[in-house]
């Protein structure tokens, strides 16, 4: 079976983890701090806060901004459940909006759904393709939208407008107008989960980019506390002579990154731009150049109008396919020994959200994208021969199913 997205683990990764395991320090410490520094340099921001997931990063930032009951947060209907769940955790209302045919959030739909209760917009760079950042940042700064904003926390007061918190779980290394994602929104949460382009097994990082008068260093320091029980000293600081005494200044969370994770991340980051991304692009190009020959194939756009994807998910769509036909195709592809996936099932369609009155029918483009979508395997060690096997399995399966259903 050709797997969907196994991690790249080689001797370099094993050596880095072993060295950390034997170093005497395995939780948050020097490796995590170095990983944060290198990530910040790579992305082009002053501070990145490393955590144990992108989900934690999104939730910490919502809470930092004081999002709570009565507030509304706008997100695309087409995303992973994490984007919505963190809003629910904060007690706020999830406002789903429809997306474009390129899978990303529709800015007109955002505008239509802004109310006086809107506190945050969380766009998602689906599959690694950046959203329309300039349009979203311009929207929240429009005088009539800013006038509508009614702050209910100190940080909301200070920002004076809706915060744009990017769910950049997929988009480390993607570029928007020549700059990496993480430098457009107020804050961006990246994922280093096992299937992601750059992994730490589980992990996440928040790139801080808040405008003046905020000091991103202060927010970073707050997040260090907030991700570790609100403890005024981390475990490493407590090991210093006389350092045993600490205070609890917040009822914080527990979602810090460990040095074992950071050791993997440092190896991954070092070879990311010139090796990982190059290979992922080659695989995307091979898929697209072959599949473009077929009328039924709607191949993903991964470079357009000053946006360059980081080639995270190859999101093929089968033109005119219904959900049943797409599912049949997936079954046939799997029978031919190739693992594929669907990114994503629209979140309003999951029972938890349906039970609260959301209805996927209200997001027709998201639903259509979903019912025609099949994500193909992309990972560093996928060989050209395997890419051809995937292509053959996909093409034959689609043609077999379309012939029966013609
Ligand atoms: C769009 C999106 N947002 C958020 C997440 C959450 O990332 P993590 O697993 O690091 O919390 C994911 C994970 O796959 C995702 O796909």
Spell out the key features of this protein.
single chain; 406 residues; alpha/beta; Aspartate Aminotransferase, domain 2; Aspartate Aminotransferase, domain 1; 2 domains; seven-stranded mixed beta sheet; four-stranded antiparallel beta sheet; 16 helices; 41% helix; 13% strand; binds pyridoxal-5'-phosphate
Q: What does this protein structure show overall?
A:
The chain is α/β, with parallel strands linked by helices. It folds into two domains: 11-270, Aspartate Aminotransferase, domain 2; 273-404, Alpha-Beta Complex (Aspartate Aminotransferase, domain 1), CATH 3.90.1150.10. The protein has helices spanning 11-22, 30-43, 54-64, 81-89, 107-113, 133-141, 143-148, 154-159, 216-226, 235-238, 259-270, 272-291, 323-335, 351-354, 364-372, 384-404, and strands at residues 47-51, 72-76, 93-97, 118-121, 163-167, 175-176, 179-180, 187-191, 204-208, 297-298, 303-304, 307-308, 314-318, 373-376. The chain has a seven-stranded mixed beta sheet, with helices on both faces. A four-stranded antiparallel beta sheet has the order 7-6-12-11, with no helix packed on it. The protein has a three-stranded antiparallel beta sheet with strand order 10-13-14. It is globular, with a radius of gyration of 22 Å. The mean pLDDT is 97. It binds pyridoxal-5'-phosphate. Pyridoxal-5'-phosphate is lined by residues 53-55, 79-80, 82-83, 124, 167, 169-170, 191, 193, 204. Residues 53-55, 79-80, 82-83, 124, 167, 169-170, 191, 193, 204 line the site of pyridoxal-5'-phosphate.
């Amino acid at each position: 079976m050709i797997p969907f997205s196994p991690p790249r683990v080689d001797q370099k990764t094993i050596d880095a983890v072993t060295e950390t395991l034997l170093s005497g320090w395995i939780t948050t410490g020097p490796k995590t701090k170095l990983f944060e520094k290198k990530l910040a340099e790579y992305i082009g921001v002053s501070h990145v806060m490393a955590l144990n997931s992108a989900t934690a990063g999104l939730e910490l930032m919502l809470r930092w901004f004081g999002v709570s009951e009565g507030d509304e947060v706008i997100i695309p209907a087409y995303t992973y459940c994490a984007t919505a769940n963190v809003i629910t955790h904060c007690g706020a209302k999830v406002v789903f909006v429809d997306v474009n045919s390129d899978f990303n959030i529709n800015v007109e739909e955002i505008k239509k759904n802004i109310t006086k209760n809107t506190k945050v917009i969380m766009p998602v760079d689906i599959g690694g393709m950046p959203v329309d950042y300039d349009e979203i940042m311009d929207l929240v700064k429009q005088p009539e939208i800013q006038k509508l904003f009614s702050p209910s926390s100190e940080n909301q007061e200070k920002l004076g407008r809706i915060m744009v918190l990017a769910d950049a779980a997929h988009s480390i290394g993607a570029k928007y107008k020549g700059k990496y994602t993480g430098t457009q929104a107020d804050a961006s949460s990246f994922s280093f989960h096992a299937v992601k382009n750059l992994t730490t097994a589980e992990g996440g990082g928040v790139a801080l980019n808040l405008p003046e008068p905020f000091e991103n260093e202060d927010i970073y320091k707050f997040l260090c506390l907030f991700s570790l029980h609100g403890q005024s000293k981390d475990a490493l600081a407590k090991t210093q002579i006389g350092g045993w005494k600490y205070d609890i200044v917040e009822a914080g969370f527990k979602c810090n990154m460990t040095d074992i994770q950071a050791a993997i991340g440092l190896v991954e980051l070092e070879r990311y731009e010139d090796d990982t991304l190059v290979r992922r692009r080659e695989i995307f190009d091979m898929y697209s150049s072959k599949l473009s020959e077929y009328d039924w194939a709607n191949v993903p756009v991964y470079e357009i109008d000053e946006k360059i994807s980081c080639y995270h998910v190859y999101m093929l769509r089968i033109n005119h396919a219904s959900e049943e036909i797409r599912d049949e195709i997936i079954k046939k592809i799997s029978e031919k020994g190739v693992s594929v996936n669907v990114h994503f099932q629209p979140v309003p369609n999951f029972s938890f959200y349906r039970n609260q009155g959301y209805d996927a029918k209200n997001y027709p483009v998201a639903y259509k994208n979903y019912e025609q979508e099949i994500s193909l395997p992309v990972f560093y060690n996928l060989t050209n021969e395997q890419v051809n096997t995937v292509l053959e399995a996909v093409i034959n399966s689609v043609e077999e199913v379309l012939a029966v259903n013609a």
